[in-house]
Amino acid sequence: MNFLTKGIYFARLLYSLQVGKVVTPLYNVQMDTTWMCNLKCKMCEWDDILMDRKTHIDFNLFKRVIQESIELGLRKINLGVAGEPMIHPEITKIINFLTENRIEISVVTNLSYSIDKFIESLKKVSKIIVSVDAATPDTYSKVRTGGDFERVISNLTKLSDSGVNIIASYVIEKNNYKEINEFIKLMHKIKVKKLHFGIVNNINQDILKQVMLSESEYNEMLEIIEEGIKTSEILGISSDGMLRPGFAISHRERFLRRLDGGTQVPHEIDSIPCYVMFFFATVTPRGDVYPCCDAQKIPWMKVGDLSLHGFREIWRGEIYNNLRRKFKKPGKPIICERCPLEDFNRTMYRYLRWI
Ligand code: SF4
Ligand code: SF4
Hints:
Blueprint: H1 3-19, E1 28-31, H2 59-72, E2 76-79, H3 91-100, E3 104-109, H4 119-123, E4 127-131, H5 137-143, H6 149-161, E5 166-172, H7 180-189, E6 194-199, H8 205-211, H9 215-235, E7 238-241, H10 247-250, H11 252-257, H12 267-270, E8 280-283, E9 288-290, E10 304-305, H13 311-315, H14 318-326, H15 342-352
Parallel strand pairs: 1-2, 1-8, 2-3, 3-4, 4-5, 5-6, 6-7
Antiparallel strand pairs: 8-9, 9-10
Helix pairs in contact: 2-3, 7-9
């Protein structure tokens, strides 16, 4: 982008945010190629009732969305969040189509399957986020039901040896919080250099109660995290999310409050507008469009149906613009308290709060 293009882009962004009507390019699309999954994790936040686990996105629909998105400015796509994206019967065609169109691809996968027939496709992906969540087979079997730990580690080794950009992800919960340090050391051993640590999230209170840390476990975790930060530094591994210095302590009250039903949205988060909606959209395998992946849990947040309308029409349409305006103000639903893109919203707010 040259200076003039940047200036025009910024002016369009300010206009969009001011009036709550998007005239900026679409930057990123989140797309589940399928809702099917090879695992059945206890803490899975993707409800079988909301998701028809047999649904794959139709390849022609996928192509149509991407072609329209490219005209709108699309640069990046994230494949997979509520299912295992590599299960899609035409995943190789999907990745090839995106690569031919120079779209940067991120894939979220559990890697608990044979990757031999996918290895060439995976090498074309710019970022692979692998859900591991354990440092031993025993813990893995408790967290990732139906998965095969040894296979995941062997696949990770193959991919890191091929030079693929990998982020190994660790969602902290009751069953695995004691293994954070062992996980860092194991990833170092197989040459994975980037780790992300989140904390378990689920709007189903019954599931959350089974997997979320108690107050004493949380306090114990704080000490383990301190040790983990030191281990990462010594081994030269980048560990973000919960392992950012001070993060787990400053978010302590908020995380623990999740166990109280989580019905209150804390004022400081609720008062920040959702800027994500001006850059981002989520497309489900059924062809429904939502502002972000978590919004799929709230049926009234659906902004369009691709069997009835084009993607451009939905992205610039009144239903999505109304939601953009509504989410500039407080009173957001429960999912926003646990916003996976909170960092992005906070950063934008720091610079653009005057709008
Ligand atoms: S791998 Fe992911 S989508 Fe599949 S069951 Fe586990 S948490 Fe859910
Ligand atoms: S969770 Fe809420 S605040 Fe976060 S991106 Fe989605 S709609 Fe926006």
